[in-house]
Automatic annotation (TrEMBL):
<dbReference type="InterPro" id="IPR036915">
    <property type="entry name" value="Cyclin-like_sf"/>
</dbReference>
<dbReference type="Pfam" id="PF00134">
    <property type="entry name" value="Cyclin_N"/>
</dbReference>
<dbReference type="GO" id="GO:0051726">
    <property type="term" value="P:regulation of cell cycle"/>
</dbReference>
<feature type="domain" description="Cyclin-like">
    <location>
        <begin position="34"/>
        <end position="118"/>
    </location>
</feature>
<comment type="similarity">
    <text>Belongs to the cyclin family.</text>
</comment>
<dbReference type="GO" id="GO:0051301">
    <property type="term" value="P:cell division"/>
</dbReference>
<keyword id="KW-0195">Cyclin</keyword>
<dbReference type="GO" id="GO:0019887">
    <property type="term" value="F:protein kinase regulator activity"/>
</dbReference>
<dbReference type="InterPro" id="IPR039361">
    <property type="entry name" value="Cyclin"/>
</dbReference>
<keyword id="KW-0132">Cell division</keyword>
<dbReference type="InterPro" id="IPR013763">
    <property type="entry name" value="Cyclin-like_dom"/>
</dbReference>
<dbReference type="InterPro" id="IPR006671">
    <property type="entry name" value="Cyclin_N"/>
</dbReference>
<protein>
    <submittedName>
        <fullName>Cyclin-family protein</fullName>
    </submittedName>
</protein>
<keyword id="KW-0131">Cell cycle</keyword>
Amino acid sequence: MKLFRRVFHDITNVSKKNIKLTIHKSSHRKKLIRWLYEVIRDFKYSQSTFGLTIYILDSYTQQMGFDINSYQLIGITSLFIAAKLEERATKPLEDYLVVTDNLVSAEELINMERMIIVNIQFDIKIPHSYLKLWYLKRMTNHFTMKERQEILFSAFACIIEKNASIKNIYCVYLEGIREAERIMSGSDISKDLEFYIKNNRVIRHIDFKSVTNKLI
């Protein structure tokens, strides 16, 4: 597989055929997670699929290590596996290849899928008992339920990015809830979190400080 030397694009504004990724010598995980987040949003997959994708990615790379040339392959394969477990309807294999600009082949993806499943010994389930609506319902009602869900998704994604090892997904989720509540209270938004909000079609238009000021 070729070394990734392509430009990172915002896929909310371009077709899937133009989704590309740049890998530098630093921040490999951060860049890959952000790319996967955009792919998952484009595919309209769920928050639990995103969480499981990163869990699989981290579990495999921490156990086996990785060659930088195969990092995107591992990432997209982790998503391929997670979607099979979490989504009722999944995208065809071809879509997973297209979002890598066809730098990944079907054979490579299927072979990597086999390697990941074997090496992490099928331990790729995360609990869903905490993914309950009451977490969202108890938040401020000045945002729609869908907006609250997407605010939480963005906060959750940002927290995952900062955690190099997701050993306790429940704790990460709770931290995401606290961050989401902070966002909705009008607190300052970090540049990292801003990336996830601005790349979320549902909430990127919201001026959180303006909404909060109107309530005072």
